[in-house]
Specification:
Protein name: Replication restart protein PriA
Structural class: alpha/beta
CATH architecture of the largest domain: 3-Layer(aba) Sandwich
Family: Belongs to the helicase family. PriA subfamily.
Keywords: ATP-binding, DNA replication, DNA-binding, Helicase, Hydrolase, Isomerase, Metal-binding, Nucleotide-binding, Primosome, Zinc
Pfam family, one: PriA_C
Number of strands: 36
Strand content: 15-25%
Distance between the termini: 43 Å
Strand order of the largest sheet: 14-15-13-16-17-12-18
CATH class of the largest domain: Alpha Beta
Shape: globular
Largest sheet: 7 strands, parallel
CATH topology of the largest domain: Rossmann fold
Number of domains: 6
Number of helices: 27
EC number: 5.6.2.4
Length: about 850
């Protein structure tokens, strides 16, 4: 849609007809819904869940979602008219609207922020201010006194229907243009309007086919051959077409035709001959809307038959679903949970419902999608952030139209317009990646999916080899069902885990840079047997920081209280918090010495050193730096899966659910930094990471080994990992959390106070903490305190943590008190510019 919008509807005549109003969700952080009047002629078009165009403020035009329709005019302002309706049918379903309301309430944000996060960008609208000649102004007849710059604008508008402000600026060669626009408006020579355009556009391909009468009328095709015999190049085009589209076998095939590119890109055919046949009317060219996804095909294979162990797990899950809405599948790595999921999905589809399969990382989707495509074909939709805006919009529309019955995606998939869910699967449910940090809504996709399933009356299956403490607690207390898979699939065995004492290796001078002799030897042995290796290092970049050997200078970020990490590939220093980067200096800016050294190591350095130590090995890296492009995940995984890569070095991306049958060794290079992190979840996360990455080894018939380099091999967490003893971890963690009041026994809310002036941030946090203490009680409010990283993007930070006992707290009332305290802080003159970020259930 692209047209001049009429902002002022004429008053409607007095009749008995009903005047309707619509409450709409604007994509803005507004605390309340805004009400608009529905023009009478749109009464039948405006429905809950459709997009409408409205004017908000002076000249701002926005698309928004209709949340409610009623007959009550707003008491505090005069309702403006809805300008236009964009959809014939709702694009947001009733269950979605309920879910969005829950997200806004639970995570203490606005419905506008939820809608802004939920809708693909291609389903939103953009608007831009433009000018055009005033309808009553005629430059040829009206004698206005115009300045030279004004004359330029009027002359340009006589040759163009409208100009954007950017185009006016270019016309005036960058000179200030606002005063001239204002003057021309006062002289009633121009008017300003908003041109609104819908971003989503279907993918269209050019196709060709034989003109109908050559196929339908007997003998016409033979006659065409005779006519083209003197034109061999044109005859070649015709023969090639008939080879691709055998109309002599089935004339109905001609209707679909073929993509024009199939002929144009053939090096043996003449492009001019193709166009000549189109001009002659032998071929006709037409446009066809097609899917953006190369998955419009029938399933290639049936699901694998489940083993006895898997079948038992499936039957237990279905049995528990009769009593409980949620079940946790606790299966060791390599136990075959994915096959169980596939069988359950197939079972759900037989009932005609939809299935959502949630994954924590895009890296996982590449491998999982390939497997699911072979089973479910074009019933499968995929949804994640690496897709273009139009691709995501197409999945959204495909779910509404019933095209996709199964959707596999990352956390944003919970926003999709499901209306007939019969199963939700949350794989690797323990993953912190399910939590959204910035911007709002700061939701957890695992919890949101559970609520979505509850609203639609469906079942949820969570799966993990290392469940979160909260999820396992829900099972132990009887709230959820629990099914265990304790054996690996087939003949595969859990890998043997060995600890390498880095201190001892250094004393023996057996360290080669960051590799112990034992680890390096094990890698070489695997490569000689044509087996593959995964190395895990939980830092990206070449080195965490650099330092001057003479004066100990360390480069810091200009905007954050962190050192800059060295990235050798780009020869730059980069901040991993705000993205600031600068070139690597040749000498020390402080003392001028040239003895700059990298300190510590990241995945880039591991990759670089391995290539030098093992020149015959193909080493590849998978981290945030190497997976920025759309298909980079898939390419890296494909290279490793096919054997083109021998060693895969990576961050947490390599720990999650990937299945490579030829991996026989996993190395964890620096385990201690993960364990000794200042967070109550540190041991839980360390155990999860170590077990998950260890689980990549020995998944088929080849025995697997895991080598963990540490300076503290007596750390108890390693014993639990070596014995695959999750129960022991859970028992210890649940006791600690009960003792110190952490989830699952409390609900936590973190408030982060931000300001570009450090004393202002500190004082605002003190005032806010005092108000919260008065409202909630001293034991519930911790802080304020300065976080470990106290400045990010030039804003100084202070944190306040709120602990709300789960059994005794009225959560809704407590959140209202928190919101009121934040609101009151912003009313104080000294703190109007202070920003407070509220994070419910922080990870």
């Amino acid at each position: 849609m692209s047209e001049l919008l009429n902002f002022n509807y004429p008053p409607e005549p007095a009749t008995d007809r009903v005047t309707l109003f619509a409450d709409v969700i604007l994509p803005l952080p507004l605390p309340k819904l805004y009400t608009y009047r529905i023009p009478f002629e749109m009464n039948d078009e405006v429905m809950v869940g459709v997009r409408v165009i409205v004017q908000f403020g002076g000249k701002r035009v926005l698309s928004c979602i209709v949340a409610d329709i009623h007959e009550n005019a707003p008491a505090d302002y005069q309702a403006k008219y809805i300008l236009d309706v964009l959809d014939d049918k709702p694009i947001v379903t009733a269950p979605q609207l309920k879910l969005f309301k829950w997200i806004a309430d639970y995570y203490m944000c606005t419905l506008g922020e939820v809608i802004n996060a939920a809708l693909p960008a291609a389903l939103k609208l953009s608007s831009e201010s433009r000018i055009q000649l005033h309808p009553h102004y005629n430059p040829e007849e009206d004698e206005l006194i115009l300045a030279a710059q004004e004359e330029k604008i009027i002359f340009a508008l006589q040759n163009n229907q409208a100009l954007t402000f950017t185009e006016v600026s270019t016309l005036l060669q960058g000179k200030p243009y606002h005063k001239y626009i204002k003057s021309l408006i006062q002289k009633e020579a121009i008017i300003i309007f908003e041109q609104v355009s819908e971003k989503f556009s279907p993918k269209v391909v050019k196709k060709v086919r034989l003109t109908e009468h050559f196929v339908q009328e007997e003998g016409m095709l033979e006659e065409l051959f005779n006519q083209l015999t003197p034109q061999p190049k044109q005859l070649d085009v015709l023969l090639n077409y008939l080879q691709l589209v055998p109309v002599h076998q089935d004339i109905h095939l001609n209707y679909k035709g073929i993509e024009k590119g199939a002929l144009v890109n053939n090096p043996h055919l003449s492009a001019s001959s193709i166009n000549t046949l189109i001009k002659k009317g032998v071929l006709e060219q037409f446009d066809q809307v097609v899917s953006r996804f190369p998955m419009d095909k029938e399933p290639q294979q049936l699901p694998m038959a489940l083993s006895e162990h898997q079948l038992q797990a499936k039957d237990e899950i279905l049995g528990l679903f009769k009593e409980k809405d949620t079940v946790l599948l606790h299966g060791v790595t390599g136990s075959g949970k994915t096959e169980v999921y596939i069988d359950l999905i197939k079972h759900a589809l037989e009932g005609g419902g939809q299935v959502l399969y949630l994954l924590p990382e895009i890296a996982l989707t590449a491998q999982i999608v390939t497997r699911l495509m072979k089973v479910f074909g074009d019933k499968l939709g995929v949804y994640h952030s690496k897709f273009s805006d139009n691709e995501r919009a197409e999945v959204w529309q495909g779910i509404l139209a019933g095209r996709f019955q199964v959707v596999v995606g990352v956390r944003s998939s919970v926003f999709l317009p499901f209306h007939d869910l019969s199963l939700v699967i949350i794989d690797e449910e323990h993953e912190a990646s399910y939590k959204q940090y910035d911007p709002a809504p700061r939701y957890n996709a695992r919890e949101t999916a559970l609520v979505m399933a509850n609203l639609q009356g469906t079942k949820t299956l969570l799966g993990s080899a290392t469940p979160s403490i909260e999820s396992y607690y829900n099972c132990k207390t009887g709230r959820w069902g629990l099914v265990s898979m304790t054996k690996r699939f087939g003949q595969a065995q859990l890998p043997e885990i060995e600890l390498i004492n880095v201190r001892d290796e250094q004393h023996r001078k057996n360290m080669h840079s960051h590799f112990s002799g034992k680890l390096l030897g094990a890698i070489e042995a695997r490569l000689q047997r044509n087996e593959q290796v995964i190395l895990f290092q939980n830092r990206r970049g070449y080195a965490p920081f650099i330092s001057c050997d003479e004066c100990s200078w360390i480069p810091k970020c200009k905007f954050c209280a962190v050192s800059l990490s060295y990235h050798k590939y780009n020869n730059e220093l980069r901040c991993h918090y705000c993205g600031y980067h600068e070139r690597m200096p040749h000498d020390c800016p402080a003392c001028g010495a040239t003895s700059l050294k990298s300190m510590g190591f990241g995945t880039e350095k591991v990759e670089d050193e391995l290539k030098l130590m093992l020149p015959n090995a193909e080493v590849q890296r998978m981290d945030l730096d190497t997976t920025k492009k759309k298909n980079s995940y898939q390419q890296i995984i494909s290279d490793f899966e096919s054997g083109r890569t021998n060693v895969l070095v990576g961050t947490q991306m390599v720990t999650k659910g990937l299945d490579f049958e030829n991996v026989s060794l996993v190395g964890i290079l620096n385990a201690d930094t993960i364990i000794n992190f200042p967070d109550y979840r540190a041991h839980e996360r360390a155990y999860q990471l170590f077990v998950q990455v260890s689980g990549r080894a020995g998944r088929k018939s080849k025995p697997g080994a895991v080598l963990i380099q540490t300076r503290d091999p007596k750390q108890p967490i390693f014993t639990k990992v070596s014995n695959n003893d999750y129960q022991s971890l859970y028992d210890h963690e649940i006791e600690e959390r009960l003792r110190f009041g952490y989830p699952p026994f409390t609900r936590m809310i973190r408030l982060t106070v931000k300001h570009n002036d450090e004393p202002t941030a500190e004082n605002a946090a003190i005032v806010l903490a005092k108000d919260l203490t008065d409202r909630l009680g001293k034991p519930q409010v911790l802080g304020p305190e300065v976080p470990y990283i106290f400045k990010i993007r030039n804003l100084f930070l202070q944190e306040i943590h709120i602990k709300l006992p789960r059994e005794t707290t009225n959560l809704k009332a407590a959140k209202h008190q928190v919101a009121q305290a934040v609101f009151n802080l912003r009313l104080l003159p000294d703190f109007k510019s202070v920003r407070v970020v509220v994070d419910v259930d922080p990870m």
